[in-house]
UniProtKB/TrEMBL annotation:
Catalysed conversion reaction: 4-(phosphooxy)-L-threonine + NAD(+) = 3-amino-2-oxopropyl phosphate + CO2 + NADH
Molecular function, one GO term: 4-hydroxythreonine-4-phosphate dehydrogenase activity
Free-text function comment from the UniProt entry: Catalyzes the NAD(P)-dependent oxidation of 4-(phosphooxy)-L-threonine (HTP) into 2-amino-3-oxo-4-(phosphooxy)butyric acid which spontaneously decarboxylates to form 3-amino-2-oxopropyl phosphate (AHAP).
Cofactor: Zn(2+); Mg(2+); Co(2+)
Pathway: Cofactor biosynthesis; pyridoxine 5'-phosphate biosynthesis; pyridoxine 5'-phosphate from D-erythrose 4-phosphate: step 4/5
Protein name (record): 4-hydroxythreonine-4-phosphate dehydrogenase
Cofactor descriptive note: Binds 1 divalent metal cation per subunit. Can use ions such as Zn(2+), Mg(2+) or Co(2+).
Keyword Protease listed: no
A Gene Ontology term for the protein's cellular component: cytoplasm
Length: 339
């Protein structure tokens, strides 16, 4: 086996055990076992047939086992999983899995975190107070220093081969998102995005396209005031700070092929403005990346897919893309620290 040059293996969290996470983790391992990137799963080993996995005690054991079996680090919490069911009873294990992967990444024993999808409704029913990984990971890593010159987020990016999008507001209702939007929020998301495009994606001078909030970017105030009152001043402030930003642009016309040629990432005001084009263009290739964390974190763009869990239909492509992107980001960060 030719192992990845990553300094340590990546830690994959288990995700919702009744969803497609366990089967796509195994499928990803089958594809990557010979060439890497090398990774291990933090999960209840009972989710897998004994012969399919190798239980490991610590990430240092991964290199020796990766070619022959999917390495699994056992959780303290047990799961009782049925494919297609997301039970709140499994929440302690789902949360422990994420916490373990993050702790190992913060300590340097893992090089980064790749999360499998969680069933947010199920976790929240069990009392989990975060609307998604993005916010939870920001909380778990809040005390760790950021890499030099990087602004703390968190900021969500959907990164596909033809399009990168960033929702400035994430897991909130459309009504609350519109009220939550400020020039400061947009500017911060833009700074985090521009830094990540430069340092993690190797784009020398990133170009940002900033969407409007309202139809036709407000049509000069006739269809809403936020575009002129909040977004336009934010774009001006970004330009003054030396960031190549344009907008507010009407969101309905900024994603066609010619438009996409003019920017490196689209900053969108609402979750669906960003995720609909990203998933429509590349559902099986796009990766969800959390920017502005002290650690590397990626994830497949899709959710738990309870409707197909356990049926052998789930594709592992997006998870594989997430693992590869995480390894590439780790490599860039390691190289830049060495310079
Ligand atoms: N990073 C995360 O933890 C994410 C979690 N979710 C959560 O997942 C749950 C379900 O969300 P949905 O909106 O139903 O989206 P979903 O992505 O789970 O499913 C949407 C459709 O895509 C299909 N699909 C999804 N992944 C697939 C794969 N790997 N291969 C083939 N087909 C696939 C499903 O079968 C379904 O028809 C929700 O609780 C949501 O919050 C959603 C997105 C990301
Ligand atoms: N729609 C994207 C999504 O829900 C993923 O969120 P997160 O769990 O990565 O914060």
């Amino acid at each position: 086996m030719t192992a990845s040059l990553a300094p340590a293996p990546l830690a994959l969290s288990m995700g919702e055990p009744g969803g497609v996470g366990p089967e796509i983790a195994r499928a990803a391992w089958r594809v990557l076992r010979d060439e890497g990137p090398v990774f291990f799963l933090t999960a209840d080993p009972a989710l897998f047939a004994a012969g399919d996995i190798a239980q490991i005690e610590n990430p240092g054991d991964v290199a020796a086992t990766f070619a022959s079996a999917l390495p699994v680090m056992a959780l303290n919490s047990k799961v009782a999983a049925k494919p297609g069911d997301a039970s709140p009873e499994n929440a302690p294990a789902v949360i422990e899995s994420i916490e373990r992967a993050v702790a190992l990444s913060l300590s340097g024993e893992a090089s980064g975190v790749v999360t499998n999808p969680i069933q947010k409704s199920s976790l929240m029913a069990a009392g989990f107070k975060f609307p998604g990984h993005t916010e939870f990971l920001a909380d778990l890593t809040a005390a760790a220093p950021m890499p030099a010159g990087r602004t703390r987020g968190p900021v969500m990016m959907l990164a596909g081969p033809q399009l990168k999008t960033v929702p400035v507001t994430i897991h909130q209702s459309v009504v609350s998102a519109a009220n939550f939007l400020t020039a400061e929020l947009i500017e911060k998301a833009a700074h985090v995005t521009a830094e990540a495009l430069h340092h993690d994606f190797g784009i020398e001078k990133p170009r940002l396209a900033v969407s409007g909030l309202n139809p036709h970017a407000g049509e000069g105030g006739a269809l809403g005031k936020e575009d002129d009152a909040i977004i336009a001043p934010a774009v001006e402030a970004l330009k003054a700070a030396g960031i190549d930003a344009r907008g507010p642009l009407p969101a309905d016309t900024m994603f066609h092929a010619e438009a996409r040629e003019t920017y490196d990432a689209a900053l969108c005001m609402l979750h669906d403005q960003a995720l609909i084009p990203a998933k429509t263009l590349a559902f099986h290739e796009a990766v969800n990346v959390t920017l502005g964390l002290p650690i590397v974190r990626t994830s497949p763009d899709h959710g738990t897919a309870l409707d197909i869990a356990g049926k052998g239909k789930a594709r592992a492509d997006s998870l594989i893309a997430a693992i590869r992107l995480a390894a590439a980001m780790v490599e860039r960060r390691t190289a830049s620290r060495a310079r």
